[in-house]
Amino acid sequence: MSQEPREHIPDGLEVVQTNGEEENKEDIYGDRLRVDLGDVDKGKRADAMGTTEPIDTTDVVQSKRRTPRALVPFRIAFQTVLPHGGALATGFNLASTSLGAGIISLPSSFNLSGIVMATVYLVLIATATTYALYLVAKVVEITGYRNYSQATRHILGRGTDIVIAILMLILCFGGSISYIIAMSTLLKPILGHPGSPAYLKTKSGNQLITSMIWLALMFPLVMPKQINALRYVSGLGVLFIVYFVICIVVHSVQNGFHNPEIRSQLVTMRYGNSALEGLGSLLFSYMSQINGFELAYEMQPRSVTRYTVSSAISMAVVGVLYFLAGFFGYADWGDRVKDSVLVLYDPVNEPYILVGYIGIIIKICAAFSLHFHALRDAGYHLLRLHVDTVPYWQHCLLMLVPATLALICGLFIPTLNTVLGLLGSLCGGTIGMIIPPLLIMYCGNFSLRKVGIVNYAATYLLLIGGVVAVVFGTSTTIYSTVGQSFV
């Protein structure tokens, strides 16, 4: 006799057998969630509680947070332009997650892989990222889970969530370190100007200013519980990145393009291991998937089509900016681009570059906080905590520890490319390109007849491409790093 398929059991509910019938028994976690509902910042907690109707907590939030009357027009204007969970806000957050430390290392990636190979990598990774985000949205629509750890635990089985949470912690913590390194690198040409105080020209002076920026700008942005709270700073940061890319193009046209020596250094295509050396950094540069679940979950109204369109536009814009920054940055400096391109400019004597540097500071702060949202979700999953039920003061203390560790590590790790290469290849390839196909395959109803030939083939291609990227990207990064250590 065939057995009827069991219905999906939401997280926080366990099934017990009573007189041959299954009934939903709410556990202690569900009780806590109901009691602490007033602490929810904003949003729908329906699927976490196992109910079918969404629970609107807007009144609760408004009763606890009253906007001063003078600021009401500004709030209305901001909500109109960038509404909470809207398609534009989602696109800005996805772009902001990608556009960070990766863009300042793009010229060196073009130098490592060659112009043609780097461009091919950009197109392939952008396409794969967009499709992976589509799969993430489908998983959220089917299951209602809001992060990777929840989804892998209930779809792929116990234990896989621990592995994914650890990989996410490594990826996001390493990414946060890279933003501290990028901030320190950004300050070097400014603090090293002849007119700067002698102490600020030293390494300890640079570390002091970096720490002050972390305390004043980066750490406060880690505190919000909901990722959509960062949509304004994300939008501002993306606009500044666009401006900085324009600065790179203008500077290249005015300088490097007219230098025959630099033009002779440009390599169209590299072969063998050299062609793969920039792959890891490029994979890291497109890691929007780390926030993909939460952004899809918070989208209002939640729609796979709207989310996919928003993702596609976002990745297309990111891809164009990456190509312009990578190609023109490489064409401007040639073989001198070994790590971050920021150290090669003179922002003090070129005011338009200085404005771009200030914008990069804002963008790095936004990207740092977005990485910490994914890190927080993974850490809370390992600790069996939920962001909506943790008191705000406790949430701040829990975020203080990894944020401080990221600062300390970032101040003492000298190079950026090694960090980005290893993180992008190993962790980024696994989380961004391998896990989404596996999740959609094991959600059920995944067959050639059900999903069609295009989705069926694309899902398997993404999975195979992820495995190839992890194996070759990681091994090449380790090989080149070890080789350079013995030169």
Automatic annotation (TrEMBL):
Matching Pfam families: Aa_trans
Record-annotated Amino acid transporter transmembrane domain positions: 86-478
Ranges of Basic and acidic residues composition bias in the record: 1-11
Record's keyword annotation contains Transmembrane: yes
Intracellular or extracellular location(s): Membrane
GO molecular function per UniProt: L-amino acid transmembrane transporter activity
Repeat in keyword set: no
GO cellular component terms listed in the entry, alphabetical order: cytoplasm; membrane
Main location: membrane
Bilayer-spanning residue ranges: 72-95, 115-137, 162-184, 204-222, 229-251, 271-288, 309-331, 351-372, 392-413, 419-441, 453-479
Top-level division of the source organism's lineage: Eukaryota
PANTHER family cross-referenced by the UniProt entry: AMINO ACID TRANSPORTER, AMINO ACID TRANSPORTER PROTEIN
Name the UniProt record assigns to this protein: Transmembrane amino acid transporter protein, putative
Native source organism of the sequence: Angomonas deanei
